[in-house]
């Protein structure tokens, strides 16, 4: 497979959304993952998110953002046809390096609680649960 990784642009949205929908364990949120929500993320965090193309077919994506103190990775997804080839790790490395250039102290990510496959992947990649924190959220 001859893949190319490039910056995500809003024109990628429909293909990215289709990939998310086809991937078990991806929690698609109606506001933040809408076209408008992704447009805001890309505008506020230019150059941080990436997609992976195999010819004209989108086979991977990773959203990256930061709040000025901490970085965040979200919806790191690779299509089944491109898995096991280092695509996810390459996207992660690119996003982390771009976040590092913003002089951030940490990079965080969330894994859906019952997504054991994702949890195993992330821990093998050197990420670890933070046992001293519990994420609390409030819907706006």
Automatic annotation (TrEMBL):
PROSITE patterns recorded: GNAT
InterPro entries, per database record: Acyl_CoA_acyltransferase, Bact_Acetyltransf, GNAT_dom
Segments forming domain N-acetyltransferase: 3-140
Transmembrane segments: none
Domain of life where this protein originates: Bacteria
UniProt keyword annotations, A-Z: Acyltransferase, Transferase
MF GO annotations: acyltransferase activity, transferring groups other than amino-acyl groups
PANTHER family recorded: AMINOALKYLPHOSPHONATE N-ACETYLTRANSFERASE-RELATED-RELATED
Protein name (Swiss-Prot/TrEMBL): Acetyltransferase
Record organism: Caballeronia sordidicola (Burkholderia sordidicola)
């Amino acid at each position: 497979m001859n893949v190319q990784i490039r910056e995500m642009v809003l024109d990628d949205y429909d293909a990215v959304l289709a990939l998310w929908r086809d991937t078990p364990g991806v929690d698609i949120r109606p506001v933040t993952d809408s076209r408008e929500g992704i447009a805001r993320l890309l505008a506020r965090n230019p150059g941080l998110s990436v997609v992976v193309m195999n010819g004209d077919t989108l086979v991977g994506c990773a959203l990256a953002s930061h709040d000025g103190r901490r970085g965040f990775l979200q919806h790191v997804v690779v299509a089944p046809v491109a898995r096991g080839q280092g695509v996810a790790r390459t996207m992660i490395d690119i996003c982390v390096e771009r976040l590092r250039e913003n002089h951030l102290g940490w990079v965080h990510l969330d894994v859906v609680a019952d997504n054991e496959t994702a949890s195993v992947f992330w821990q093998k990649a050197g990420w670890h649960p933070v046992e001293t924190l519990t994420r609390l959220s409030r819907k706006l």
